[in-house]
Amino acid sequence: xxxxxxxxxxxxxxxxxxxxxxxxxxxxxxxxxxxxxxxxxxxxxxxxxxxxxxxxxxxxxxxxxxxxxxxxxxxxxxxxxxxxxxxxxxxxxxxxxxxxxxxxxxxxxxxxxxxxxxxxxxxxxxxxxxxxxxxxxxxxxxxxxxxxxxxxxxxxxxxxxxxxxxxxxxxxxxxxxxxxxxxxxxxxxxxxxxxxxxxxxxxxxxxxxxxxxxxxxxxxxxxxxxxxxxxxxxxxxxxxxxxxxxxxxxxxxxxxxxxxxxxxxxxxxxxxxxxxxxxxxxxxxxxxxxxxxxxxxxxxxxxxxxxxxxxxxxxxxxxxxxxxxxxxxxxxxxxxxxxxxxxxxxxxxxxxxxxxxxxxxxxxxxxxxxxxxxxxxxxxxxxxxxxxxxxxxxxxxxxxxxxxxxxxxxxxxxxxxxxxxxxxxxxxxxxxxxxxxxxxxxxxxxxxxxxxxxxxxxxxxxxxxxxxxxxxxxxxxxxxxxxxxxxxxxxxxxxxxxxxxxxxxxxxxxxxxxxxxxxx
Length: 520
What we know:
The chain has 520 residues and is an alpha/beta fold. The protein is built from 21 helices and 19 strands. The protein has helices at 5-23, 27-36, 42-49, 118-125, 141-146, 155-164, 181-185, 206-213, 219-223, 225-231, 241-253, 292-299, 344-359, 377-381, 384-397, 412-416, 440-447, 449-454, 458-470, 475-482, 492-508; strands at residues 56-58, 63-68, 71-77, 80-87, 90-97, 129-133, 170-174, 177-178, 191-195, 200-201, 236-238, 306-308, 316-323, 326-333, 364-370, 402-411, 425-429, 434-436, 485-486.
C-alpha cells in the first residue's frame, strides 16, 4: 500500500505546525515577562552567539502534547533548546535552558528520549560544548506529575558532564536565576561568565534560604555578580548578554576543538616588535607597584589578552593571549594587590589556569614578580600551606611548555612555583630581578636576631647586615655561578615568540588528555 502525495503533504504540514509550536516557547506572556526582566529568550541568545544561519536544532519535537478528538490541541515544548552550530567557523554543540517554559525546570521536558542528549553529542563528536543557563533546577511540581517523589540521581547526567571536561572545551553562561543542578553545571566548565544585574546563582534561592535559615534576602544579594565575581565561582562578569556572548567567542578562539587537536593559529604581528617601555616599567623602588596589565600588553599581540577571573585572587593576573599568532596562557604577579603575594585564592586560580593550559596544549608564560606566599594570621586561617602544596603539585605535574620571565622579585616557595624542573622549560631574568629564599629585610632580622639584639645599636647593626647582604643580591652574581640568562627587557617578546615556535613540535607529542585531569 502506498501513501498518496496529499497524505505526505498533511504530514509535512503537521511537522511544520509542531515545530512552530515549539518555537513559541512559553508563549507570548512568558516571553514578555522574560524581556521585562531585561533578559533575552534562549532562541534570541543562540541567534546572537552562533554564526548566522548555522544553528541546526535537534530534539525540537520533544515536549508534552495535549490531544483531543481532532488530534494535537496544544503543545508545551521541553524547557531546553539544543543544537549543533558553528562559532567563528568551528563546530560547537550549544544547549540553552528556556526560562519561559516553567522556569527552565527539567521536570517539564517530557522525559528522556532515545536520542543522544546535547552533552553526549559533544562528547561523541568531540566538539566544544556551550551551556546557556537560565533555569531554576528541580521543581516540586514534578512530584504531582509523577505521582510520587524521586531519589536525586542527577549524576546519571553529570557523569557525562564530568567526562566532557577531559575531552573538549566546556563553557557555561549564567544568564538568569540559576539554581539546583544547573548551578553546579555552571562550574562544571573550563570557564564561565554571568551578567551583572540580570543573573544570579545559588544552590537554593531566597525561599529556600528563608525556610532553612529563617532570614529574607533578595536574589541579587544572595547570588549576584558582586558575590560570585569575587568568590571564584564565576570567572568573568559581563555587563550585558551581548558582551557575554562576545567573551564566549573569544575564550573559545584560543582553544582546540578537543584535546587531540592543536590550538588554532591566528594572524600575527612581527615576532621582534620592540617596546621600549619595558625598560622602565619596573620601578627602582622594590616596594612600588606597577601595572602587570601594561607589562602583558607590551609583550603579547596587540589587543589579544583575554583576562580570566580578574576579581578573584587578584594578586595574580591570568588569561589567554597570542604572541606572533600562537595562543598562549599568561600569568603575572599583580603588585597592585597584596604586593603581588600569592594568597589562597590566587593559588587556586593559578592551579586552574595551569590545568587549563595543560589540558588544551597552550604554552604558559609567567611574568614573575613574586614576593612569596601571603603571610599573616588571616592567611593561616585560610590554609595557605595546603594551598601552596597544591600549587607545587600542579606545577610539577604539568607538562606543557613553560617559560618564565623574572621581572623583579622571586622569593621562597611562591617563587619556586614559577619554575618547573622537567619538560620544556625556559627562564630569563631582567636586570631588575632579585631573588632568594626570602626577602633580605625580614630575613636579616630573623637570621641574625642574636647579633642584632647583642649590639649596642640594634637598628644600626640590622642596617649594616642588610647592606652586606644586599651587596650579594645582584642577579649577575647568580648568573656567574649558575648560567642564568639575563636579558634586555625589550627582547622579551622576541625570545617568547622564538620559544613558542619551538614549543609547537613538543605540543604535537602531548596531544590527548593530560595525566592530571582538569578539576573545576
